Amino acid sequence: MSDYQSRSDKAYAKQLMQAANKEATAFLNLKSSAERKDGAIPEKYRELMSIAVALSTQCSYCIDAHVENAVKAGATKEELAETVFIASALRAGAAVGHGLLAMKLFEEHSA
Predict the structure, then answer these.
(1) pTM above 0.85?
(2) C-alpha span between 43 and 98 (Å, rounded)
(3) Inter-residue long-range contacts of 99-108, CB under 8 Å, 24+ positions, other chains counted
(4) What is the pLDDT of residue 83?
(5) How far from 104 is each of 87, 93, 94, CA to CA, in Å?
(6) How far apart, in whole angstroms, are the C-alpha atoms of residue 73 and residue 71?
(7) Most buried residue, 8, 38, 66, 94, by most Cβ within 10 Å?
(8) Residue 21 pLDDT > 60
(9) Cα radius of gyration rounded to whole Å, the chain
């Protein structure tokens, strides 16, 4: 299915939010707080951090929205590229961290 995930799927957002209105409202309030423009962290950096998380969670819609917001906030292509590699390094680092747990569990199960 080549159209499994596409921008046109955003048309379902209203349906999704209406079907779980209380949860959607809570989510949108949290999203609004995280993306506020008057925080201690400047908007551009909030967006770059959001891109890093979106890359880690592999949410295409989030990547699209936050790259657009980052461009509007003045992010450069170089900043985006660095964000990509920082996110990839941390994601790889998490695998190593979980590897420590795997080693511990191996010892426990081998005992």
Answers:
(1) no
(2) 32
(3) none
(4) 97
(5) 26, 17, 16
(6) 5
(7) 66
(8) yes
(9) 18
| Structural element, H or E, at residue 110 | helix 77-110
Nearest to 66 by CA among 38, 91, 34: 34
Give every CB contact of residue 42 below 8 A, 6+ residues apart in sequence.
73
Under a CB-based contact definition with an 8 Å cutoff, are residues 54 and 62 in contact? yes
Q: Tell me the one-letter amino acid at 87.
A: A
Long-range interactions of 37-44: CB distance < 8 A, separation 24+: 42/73, 43/69, 43/73, 44/70, 44/73, 44/74, 44/75, 44/79
Q: Which residues contact 48 (CB under 8 A, 6 or more apart)?
A: 70, 75, 79, 80, 83
Are 49 and 84 a contacting pair, CB within 8 Å? Answer: no
Check residue 74 and give left, alpha or beta (phi > 0: left; psi -120 to 50: alpha).
left
Place of tokens 């349906």: 15
